What does this fold into?
Amino acid sequence: MNIVLLGPPGAGKGTQAAGLARALRVPTISTGDMLRRAVQSGSPLGLAVKAAMDRGDLVDDGMMTELVAARLAEPDTRSGFVLDGFPRTVDQALSLDGLLQHRGDLVVVELAVPDSAIIRRLSERRVCVQCGRNADPDGGNKSSISCACGGSLRQRSDDTESVVRERLRIYECSTRPLIDFYRQRRALRAIDGTQPADLVTAEIARVIDAVFDHSTN
Ligand code: AMP
It folds into this structure.
């Protein structure tokens, strides 16, 4: 099954994508993680995207499409995938259509979370410098200083309030139009992303099951 998780930064896409991919036994494709790894390794791609990421801007559509096209060409994505962070513009969505020809339907799940909750969540978010996982998706023990893997926890450089406000502004103008784009195709399922993570997971599972049952009946 081909799934896209859509929603503003901090809506919980990364956490939900990982759980969903494990349950469906398909890979997660997180473009933010791919870019952060490229920046960390100092590769030509990393050097090209670092400044845009630090500002909270979007990376160029052509570069993003190339990155996702290369990942979708790998055989482990043949039976499906969960995309987290792509598409983020209508142009990227149109490119994705091209990449997915003859590869089955796409289900787009929107995690809806208001800006006030996003700013609070992201100012508190800490990620592991070693494994990249979020330390504390549900707001549990914020005082812990290391991840279960032993890596230390840090705030992401683009999670500061000024950069988050810029990312939300860009989400509104560049990414929100995708909601209508996919709604018009009846591919969109909206979920209240303000609920605790386990309830969001259960609702995503219910929505995906319903689509799957419908397509096999
Ligand atoms: P994320 O981890 O998904 O919040 O992404 C972190 C940053 O990576 C974003 O703020 C963008 O700078 C960049 N990025 C990730 N995915 C995309 C995309 N599909 N299009 C453009 N930029 C992206």
About this structure: The two ends are 16 Å apart (CA to CA). Residues 137-141 have pLDDT under 50 and may be disordered. The chain has nine helices and seven strands.
